[in-house]
Amino acid sequence: MKETVQKHSQMEEMINELERKKEKAKLMGGKEKIERQHSLGRYTARERVERFVDSGSFLELGMLNHSDQPGAEEKSPADGYICGLAKVDGRPVVVQASDKTVFAAAEGQVHLRKAKAVRKYAVEHGLPIFELAEGGGLRMPDGMGSDGISASLPLKEGLRHGRRVPYISGIMGDSFGGPTWHAVSADFAVQVKGTCMAVGGPRMLEMATGEKISPEELGGWKLHAEKTGQIDVAVDNDDECMEKMKEFFSYMPLNAEEEPPRRETKDDPFRRLDEVIDIVPVQRNRAYDMKKLIKVIVDDGEFFELKPLYGRALITGLARLDGRVVGIMANQPMRNAGAAGPNECDKAIEFICLCDSYHIPLIFLNDVPGFLIGSKGEEQKIPTKIMVWNQALAYSTVPKLTVIVRKSVGMAYANMCRPGMGADFVVAWPTAEINFTGPEVGVNVVYGQQLKNSENAAEERKELLHQWSFDSSPYKAASKHYIDDIIDPRETRKFLCQALEYACAKNGSKSERLLANWPTGY
């Protein structure tokens, strides 16, 4: 009896010691640093995880980790890195978060070892990866010396991720080095306004090169949302960042073995779209907002746009049709009349790879007068970008549906999934114009000299334009079965929902994933 009591007492002491260690670990860098993080309007890593995942679902790994650098053991709870398994909206995931209160969220060797282990587990077990990121890159002195740097750089296995599970990143504080590498490699990246995302911080840049620059100029949200395209969405705060990450996740499968989840909807798949008559002008040179048309077509008017401020002549985003997740690519006549430039090409390639890798059918809404050509485009390799876009399209094997709303001209017709590019169905509205070039340009190039010498150039031009327009109408293509049908614009939703059901009849929306190993950024 006495021996049993003694054993219980010893066990209680051990348990109490464990609880003390864990309580200390939960405080991370201490109350003062936590308050400093709060004063910036940001949460700590633990607070982010707690707010992000389903209540009571988080299974933390490595809470008792600390730095392996001599003398740093007591200053580095969890080595500044919180990670584990959890549920988000009832679905199992892996969550990781760097903590600013421990060595400014810089990455130590234990931190990196734990991160690699949990990511490997996620891929092997088909669990999506969420990163709630901020941090100062590789920690010194952990990464110093031939041994430190050798142990710290990305491993081949991590770089061959192959889109086997969705990877979703939120830049929630200044991020340099590791968090930046992860964000630009992710399937979806959100940046909180007021943060900086770059290879190295302004201080390191100044010391290394002498360049003086503000964090905003170096890697602020405007730069990445409008010019680099390295983020998909910019938001105002941590809470909005996490909501956007969850919203994107709602369109994703858990892993590459599954289709995206279907969602019940009361929105009639055969709903007639009387509104489109007022949205889309018959005159082909008049602009309109393609986003209004998209929201009328999709379930419940819900459209999750990606990269809205980058390559703005092309719209890309996720939606649902009769409950099934779809990816939508559409030209935006409000921007350069819908003509795509180099940024639109990069945006299209990345989106096609995303959708094809995660079994998301693609819907193309065409209203494109061609590509934005000129010396600037040539300097940015637009011929190469146009063809890589075409190659991505040719390799994609998800169901694809094309609707030619108005113009689809020249090579842009191919890039927006013309017949012969793997579309299951290609249809046109009666307003469609399909040709090598627009009537005005075509007539000027082919008949310019003739009109110059004509005694009645105005009338002759009018007649030639009329003829060119006739040749461009969709009826010729339909009569020879180059396209499948010409549809009443008001029946667009009905056509897409019906066609999508038939296109997915055999294998659902599953692709062959031929694009899964293509780069995650362009």
Radius of gyration, in angstroms, nearest whole number: 27 Å
Structural category: alpha/beta
- Beta content: 15-25%
Number of helices: 21
Number of strands: 16
Fraction in helix:
40-55%
Structural shape: elongated
Overall mean confidence score, pLDDT:
89
Report on the biggest sheet. Answer: 8 strands, mixed
Uncertain segments are: none
N-end to C-end Cα span: 72 Å
- Looking at how many chains there are and whether they match, the oligomeric state comes to single chain
Layout of strands and helices, then pairs:
Layout: H1 2-26, H2 31-39, H3 45-52, E1 59-61, E2 81-88, E3 91-98, H4 109-124, E4 129-135, H5 145-152, H6 156-159, E5 167-176, H7 178-185, E6 188-192, E7 197-198, H8 202-209, H9 215-219, H10 221-228, E8 233-235, H11 238-249, H12 276-279, H13 290-297, E9 304-306, E10 314-321, E11 324-331, H14 342-357, E12 362-368, H15 375-379, H16 382-395, E13 400-409, H17 411-415, E14 425-428, E15 433-435, H18 439-452, H19 457-472, H20 474-479, E16 485-486, H21 492-503
Parallel strand pairs: 3-4, 4-5, 5-6, 5-7, 6-8, 11-12, 12-13, 13-14, 13-15, 14-16
Antiparallel strand pairs: 1-2, 2-3, 9-10, 10-11
Helix pairs in contact: 14-16, 18-19
